[in-house]
């Protein structure tokens, strides 16, 4: 097997028939002024051809990966690239979930957590009955009846990883559904109180929406026994009419006015959704569309969830502790502090507990070590992924890839030392 990669006549973009030899199993740096073809050589030629050759060897169709403009590349290995583009803008993603450190913590707390009995309030120790090698996220999202409480003898459900996931109903705060924040429509931006609906009082409605919705408003109001005049200025609407327009016929804000009347079944019969309710629904349904969500976010007021204080979890999940700390306490620590806590944990639990958690701690220590080595030990597990800088997100992906166990891989990195202190740069090697 060749110990070098030989490129002949690469001519993509700004490359002008560049031929060179790159040694394998070494750190090779490509430098040059802006526009000299660094990215064209590293990403668009080396990386893409490495992907194409690997997929082709597997007999897979590679129509979406065209052969780069180069005569030949010999000695190429399967390649992985890490650039500085943010790839995960989901508000549900955190440093903990992206690195899977939080996944291991969920497993740790499910096996070793002490919690108050939901019936008598006295503390229950871990049962040590759970299988640490069981299916991780294949656990059912329903309560499983477990052992009786040691104090009141009432059956208490077993703890599972789902209890500590803010992306699952069993663990997520019901008020914010695990986001840690709540959103409300900014009515000052949605409505012009001085205008009627017909004159453009609902700012985002065009003439077609005005025609459609004014009909639904009239029919819906008639269903409940009151009148609604689209020609009336919004600022002069009474409480019933205002709640109808803003929150819609199924919202608690409106239903409190007519507790004995069921909402219409269809839009044609007056089932009006409400201006604010419609906006929040579209925001929720388009979680993966960053550009669309950013437009809607301008019309929202976002605040920390008052029920979970931004921790994303249910009160029952936040009450579970190991050595006096909840999973929320750990998630708010820096990665370096979490590593220190993990090292101290064997002194805080008994030998029976260590037999349960030792396999978990081995993997957890290794993941934390890699993250600290790439210079992100200052990040907290609760840090939202969209709030990371490009360099931070890149180093998180780098730590995950370097721990994958794969060998013989060609790694193509875009300025991996961006944002690093010089003392941390050597650790990347």
Assign the CATH architecture of the largest domain.
Up-down Bundle
* SS summary, helix count: 15
Helix content range of the residues, please? 25-40%
CATH class designation of the largest domain: Mainly Alpha
Q: What separation lies between the terminal Cα atoms? A: 24 Å
Uncertain runs with pLDDT below 50, 5 residues or more? 130-138
Gyration radius (Cα, Å) is: 28 Å
Mean pLDDT: 86
* CATH T-level fold name of the largest domain: ABC transporter ATPase like fold
SSE sequence, one letter per element? EEHEEHHEEEEEHHHHHHEHEEHHHHEH
Shape: flat
At the fourth CATH level, what is the homologous superfamily of the largest domain? ABC transporter ATPase  like domain
What share of residues are in beta strands? Answer: 5-15%
Q: Could you give the count of β-strands?
A: 13
Strand arrangement within the widest β-sheet reads: 2-1-3
Category from helices, strands and their pairing = alpha+beta
């Amino acid at each position: 097997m060749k110990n070098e990669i030989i490129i002949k006549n690469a001519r993509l973009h700004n490359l002008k028939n560049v031929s060179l030899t790159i040694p394998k199993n070494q750190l090779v740096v490509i430098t040059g002024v802006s526009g000299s073809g660094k990215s064209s050589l590293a990403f668009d030629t080396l990386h893409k051809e490495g992907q194409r050759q690997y997929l082709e060897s597997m007999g897979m169709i590679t129509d979406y990966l065209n052969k780069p403009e180069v005569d030949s590349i010999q000695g190429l290995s399967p390649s992985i690239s890490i650039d500085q583009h943010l790839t995960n803008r989901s508000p549900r993603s955190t440093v903990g979930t992206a690195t899977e450190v939080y996944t291991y913590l969920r497993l740790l707390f499910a096996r070793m957590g002490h919690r108050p009995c939901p019936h008598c309030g006295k503390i229950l120790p871990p049962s040590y009955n759970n299988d640490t090698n069981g299916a991780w996220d294949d656990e059912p999202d329903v309560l499983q009846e477990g052992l009786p409480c040691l104090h009141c003898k009432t059956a208490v459900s077993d703890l599972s990883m789902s209890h500590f996931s803010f992306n699952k109903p069993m663990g997520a705060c019901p008020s914010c559904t695990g986001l840690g924040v709540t959103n409300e429509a900014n009515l000052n931006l949605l409505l012009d109180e001085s205008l009627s609906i017909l004159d453009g009082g609902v700012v985002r409605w065009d003439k077609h929406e005005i025609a459609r919705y004014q009909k639904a408003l009239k029919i819906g109001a008639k269903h409940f026994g009151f009148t609604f005049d689209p020609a009336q200025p919004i600022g002069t609407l009474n409480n019933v009419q205002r709640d109808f327009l803003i929150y819609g016929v199924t919202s608690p804000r409106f239903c409190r006015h007519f507790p004995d009347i069921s909402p219409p079944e269809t839009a044609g019969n007056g089932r009006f959704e409400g201006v604010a309710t419609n906006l929040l629904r579209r925001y929720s349904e388009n979680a993966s569309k960053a550009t669309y969500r950013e437009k809607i976010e301008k019309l929202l007021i976002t605040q920390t969830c008052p029920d979970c204080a931004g921790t994303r979890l249910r009160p029952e999940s936040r009450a579970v502790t190991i050595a006096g700390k909840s999973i929320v306490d750990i998630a708010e620590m820096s990665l370096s502090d979490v590593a220190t806590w993990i090292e101290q944990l064997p002194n805080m639990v008994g030998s029976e507990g260590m037999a349960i958690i030792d396999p978990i701690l081995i993997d957890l220590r290794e993941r934390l070590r890699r993250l600290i080595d790439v210079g992100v030990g200052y990040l907290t597990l609760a840090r939202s992924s969209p709030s990371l800088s490009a360099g931070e997100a890149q180093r998180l992906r780098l730590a995950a890839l370097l721990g994958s166990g794969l060998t013989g891989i060609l790694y193509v990195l875009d300025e991996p030392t961006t944002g690093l202190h010089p003392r941390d740069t050597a650790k990347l090697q």
